[in-house]
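Minutes, project check-in
Item: structure for the 325-residue chain
Input as provided by the requester:
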Amino acid sequence: MKNDDTLINVLNLKTYFFTSEGVVKAVDGVDLEIRKGETVGLAGESGCGKSTLAYSITRLIPRPGRIIDGKIIFRGENLLEKSEREMRSIRGRKISMIFQEPTASLNPVFTAGDQIMEVIRLHQKVRRKEAWERMIEMLRLVRIPDPERVAKEYPFELSGGMQQRVMIAMALACRPELLIADEPTTSLDVTTQAQILELMRELKREINTSILYISHNLAVISQLCNMIGIMYAGDLVEFSDVATFFHKPMHPYTQKLLDAIPKVKQKTKRLEAISGFVPSLIDPPTGCKFHPRCHLAKESCSQEKPPLALVDEGHWVRCWRYGKK
């Protein structure tokens, strides 16, 4: 995948965790492109490698994990060739991340305002008074009422929704070119989830930041994103625009995944189930990792891993039904 307006291009990325039980191939040769101003959703079952891909892009993989191969080209430069000092200047300023749990991500001993100001002063080298003014501006941007009061409060004094808004304000404080949101509404109630998603849509229009939105909720991705990628057992198996994905899914796993979603007009129809189990990432199946569960699998599917093939304009599928074999 490569385009003239590409912001970040992930090429054959492999991130493995070296454990006492074996090597966990969490991300196993992923290619992904995000264009400027684009919102890309990344979906898949728990443990499929979505969050590991996000942490790989920001170079925040915890031990015993390690990126062993591939490239992450951001604005023409390979992030994997950057020193840790160079990455610290990129994180928060050019690439920011919103984490799953705001309670765990915010420091309990510092006020909300101080934590946002720290990001601003670190990357923009401004005095405290100017950092305060920018911080208040960011709190207003994320629709926090009475920002001067909230800025002086500690995380435990704020609701989950307010904590997440503070996290978003912190992530956007330096107007990054890429915002990575890793399941940012998972711990929130339905009403607050809807408010946060609407806020992200509004901020997208105002700031024009590219977004990588990670979720297992396809309904949320359909509302927020214009492109979607599906991961399975460490592989990106399908990538297309959202409309094509829901109307013309092509990978057998994607088709089964959509068949398993309840539909209002089909109340009496029995929901489809995907047979078998998610494979071990320590000892995954040879060839296509989905072939043991695929009703369309052939002998060749177990012999060699299929490439991510372009089957239509902007529509990529990792399946031998569309590959050259």
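Outcome recorded: The CA atoms of residues 5 and 35 lie 6 Å apart.
No further action items on this chain.
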